[in-house]
Amino acid sequence: MYAELRDTATELAGVLWREHTVYRERGGGVVIRGEHVERWISLAPTGGRNQARLRAGRLLDGGTTAPARSETVVDLSAGTAELAAVCRRLLADVAAADSPAPSRARSERPPRSGRPPRSERPRRSERPPKPARPAARRHTSLGSWVVVLCVAGIVGLWAYTQFGRYGY
After folding, report:
1. Within a 13 Å sphere around the CA of 93, how many CA atoms are in the beta-carbon half?
2. Residue 90: its H or E element
3. What is the reported pTM?
């Protein structure tokens, strides 16, 4: 299965990108890296006959691979053109997930629920001071004291068995 995946990946890489690197991954699959587009595609065997799991993701700074953003199962008996079309669709999904959503201008944003816009809020120096914290309570609870007493009892019992019987 690895030889078939490697051949398919080599053909696919030639169709998709001019500059690419094809190598084997740990799980027995094949990875195609496109450094110039900062994307990767992985072909991994599945339990089915003539099927492969196709995953796509982006390359991070330094060349490490980010987790897959999209994946699908493809039939390897399909031609290279069909596989390339599926890969392009997955790469488009990755690119869409990477692009930030268009931000609205601050003036167009609706105010947060229950809060006036920043220009209408009083300045920090004009605000009343925050109320003081309540008096500190004891941190040691009853359960902690029970644990301390049990440990002291066990240590005392051990000391008695070691030194108390024979008048050491």
Report:
1. 16
2. helix 80-98
3. 0.54
